[in-house]
Here is the input.
Amino acid sequence: MRLEFAALDPKSCYKLLIATVLPRPIAWVTTVSGEGVVNAAPYSFFNVFGEKPALIVLGLQHRADGSPKDTTRNIRASGEFVVNILTPDLAGEMVETAALYPADRSEPEAVGLALAPSLHVAPPRLAAAPVAFECRRLTGLSFSGDRELCIGEALAIEARDGLIDPETLHVDWQGAFPLARLFGPRYGRVEEIAPLTIPEPRAAGPAVRKAAE
Here is the structure.
């Protein structure tokens, strides 16, 4: 079966993309409005894209009328945001912050999420999140009226005690890995992990794996 994205409507493209590119990490983004209201919202169009500088990219979705949501508007105004990484025990609170609260209502306050101050940026982090990246916006890209790519530089990482070894920088999640986004209302836990070491190149030979007919 072959489908051409150019022949599909945006809703169908979205459905196919999120149901096949998975699992995806979740950026639980905190920002601050010009009036000082702390906003929190989850985004699964997110990942890291470099290390020097440490680049984080968010796929920010707009409202149906093309106007920016609170997160996008706050980042445009201040140039700052925090990406919080959550574990499955915080799934309920994360989903609650996706509700359509008005701009003058703080999701962390409504849901009962404690905040902790950041060092380099104004937006606070979510105290319960095991990892948080303090970020500064570098640039934004827009290819349609539906979404905007926000490219930011991670200035610092804040992690709960015991997660990162200060000497080796080894990260030990102790089995409680971040929550993964699937599609629809589905989320997943990362539980079965097998280490695979990159081997040396194979010697020249005729072996070819054929696609299943």
The mean pLDDT is 92.
